[in-house]
From TrEMBL:
The gene is LOC104719648. It is found in: Mitochondrion inner membrane. This is Cytochrome c oxidase subunit 5C. PANTHER family: CYTOCHROME C OXIDASE SUBUNIT 5C-2-RELATED (PTHR34372), CYTOCHROME C OXIDASE SUBUNIT 5C-4-RELATED (PTHR34372:SF3). Keywords: Membrane, Mitochondrion, Mitochondrion inner membrane, Transmembrane, Transmembrane helix.
Length: 65
């Protein structure tokens, strides 16, 4: 047993604070960007609706047949 290698133990160092902060910022920016795109799309659709309503091209009153 003269040349038996020692087996090292895996040591848990805990989370890296800097990595956690970077991941959080990146995730926040990505989700925030998607939310803003969703909001801008809703805003555009609402503006288009009111523009068409003002021009008289559409109506919110059902026509009688």
């Amino acid at each position: 047993m003269a040349n038996v290698p020692k087996i090292g133990k895996a040591i848990y160092k805990g989370p890296s604070i800097v990595k956690e902060i970077v991941y959080g910022i990146a995730l926040g920016i990505a989700v925030g960007g998607l939310w803003k795109m969703h909001h801008w799309n809703n805003q555009r659709q609402t503006k288009e609706f009111y523009d068409l309503l003002e021009k008289g091209e559409i109506s919110v009153v059902a026509e009688d047949e």
